[in-house]
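Milestone 3.1: sequence recovery, worked example.
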């Protein structure tokens, strides 16, 4: 393997490592989301005035952030991907 191939392999390895860290981070965040919100629902359920479901605000706010984290970790080439658009244009040009 020459130097250029080695550099490309190292770059791919670094990208995979970065993706793996994002996915592991998402799984940790999801676990904390479930545990903390289950606790908050428990506090709400055992409170004297449980008519207003206030934990929903924590669930919605944190859930939105969690959803963004999920898409960054698992759908790297999303709707606004430059690479995806380049490949689409390349296919159109070669047709």
């Amino acid at each position: 393997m020459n130097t250029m191939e080695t550099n490309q392999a190292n770059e791919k390895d670094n990208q995979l490592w970065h993706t793996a860290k994002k996915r592991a981070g998402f799984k940790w965040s999801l676990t904390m989301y479930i545990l903390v919100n289950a606790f908050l629902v428990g506090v709400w359920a055992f409170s004297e005035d449980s008519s207003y479901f206030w934990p929903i605000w924590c669930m919605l706010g944190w859930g939105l952030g969690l959803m963004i984290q999920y898409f960054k970790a698992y759908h790297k080439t999303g709707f606004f991907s430059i690479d995806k658009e380049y490949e689409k244009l390349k296919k159109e040009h070669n047709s």
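The CA atoms of residues 50 and 72 lie 36 Å apart. The mean pLDDT is 87.
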